[in-house]
Amino acid sequence: MRCFILIILILSLSGCTQFIFQPTQEHLITPDKIGLNYEDIHFESLDGLKLHGWWIPAIGEAEATVLYLHGNAQNISNHLGNAYWLPKENINLLIVDYRGYGHSAGLPSLPGSMMDIEAALQQALALTGNTPLVVIGHSLGASMAIYALAHSPNKTKLAGAIFAAPLSDYQQVAREVMAKVWFLWPFQYPLSWSINNDFAPINSAPQLSPLPLLFLHSPTDNIINPQHSERLFANAGEPKQLRLLAGGHNALFTPAENRQLILDTIRGWRKKTPQPPSH
Q1: Is the Cβ–Cβ distance between 137 and 69 less than 8 Å?
Q2: Inside any domain, residue 277
Q3: What distance in Å separates the CA atoms of residue 137 and residue 144, rounded to the nearest whole number?
Q4: Do the Cβ atoms of 234 and 207 come closer than 8 Å?
Q5: Which domain holds residue 130?
Q6: Distance between CA 21 and CA 18 in Å, rounded?
Q7: Which of 108, 174, 191, 244 sits between 20 and 30 A of 17, alpha carbons compared?
Q8: Cβ atoms < 10 Å from Cβ of 113
Q9: pLDDT of residue 186
Q10: Vertex 70, ends 66 and 76: CA angle to 5°?
């Protein structure tokens, strides 16, 4: 059995990072089921692939807009719980699925997801009106956003970016996971070397400047070690913040004090963002 598991792992890691994507297609809930008005958004990725997301307008007068990028598993319906509270705080929300997730076409890949994030950013900018735009990414979504935003021609149009529980290096995370399994421990380095690390966030973090950044992580995160956020924070330029918060990996957005920190940060960035003149 152990040999079988090892063979499967070797095959899954060989030459790619496909193992990190765990999409599902069925939506378990839609925003209207929790009292939110929404619109299905269909748009194209940079390579023409059809993507899907939800546009959930602020309940009151919009103060800002958030593009939310979710983690590696399931789809937007499962991750809505991390962001549904934003429209109730007068913040527009665009939450999108990468290729292969939910109602988005195609198969997941890191290069493809980078194109999807840039296309989602363009879509968000088209929807924001006069409100400042902030990107919030969680876990894999945060990690991919770091690379995508660092290389985006639209980076300067953002008010800021919030990265919750990001990983800094795909190969390093693979080694950390394998080190927890005794019979994989001896193979952690050779297997990790087979993973495509071209999009490692640690190498792109310096290029995010001068975009304002907030890194969030839990000291008790047992999925991605908080040292990943610390490394990214150290490599990123100013202005930047790092906050270690209660909640664990999948509950960073649950505590009221964590939500308030996010709101205060967005509103602080909003005040510093030049607003277009009124007519």
Answers
A1: yes
A2: no
A3: 8
A4: no
A5: 2-24+31-272
A6: 6
A7: 244
A8: 26
A9: 61
A10: 90
Nearest to 98 by CA among 74, 72, 116: 116
* Domain count across the chain: 1
Question: Phi first, then psi: what are they for 173, rounded to 5°?
Answer: -65, -40
HSE of 26, CA atoms in CB hemisphere, 13 A: 1
Q: Average pLDDT over the chain, rounded to whole? A: 89
Q: Is the pTM of this model over 0.85?
A: yes
* CATH number assigned to the domain comprising residue 185: 3.40.50.1820
Q: Which residues contact 40 (CB under 8 A, 6 or more apart)?
A: 52, 53, 54, 55
User: How do residues 104-138 score in pLDDT, each as one tens digit?
Assistant: 999 999 999 999 999 999 999 999 988 999 999 99
Q: Does 44 reside within a domain?
A: yes
Is 103 contained in some domain? yes
Give the helix/strand (H/E) hosting 215: strand 213-217
Higher-confidence residue: 234 or 171? Answer: 234
Q: Is the C-alpha dihedral spanning 132, 139, 227, 146 positive or negative?
A: negative
Q: Kindly tell me if the per-residue pLDDT of 185 is higher than 80.
A: no
CA-nearest of 2, 106, 92 to 48 is 106
Residue in this structure with the two tokens 């940060």, named with its chain if needed = 265
Asked whether residue 279 is assigned to any structural domain, the reply reads: no
Query: Would you list the DSSP string of 78-109?
Result: HHGGGTTTSGGGTEEEEEEEPTTSTT--S---
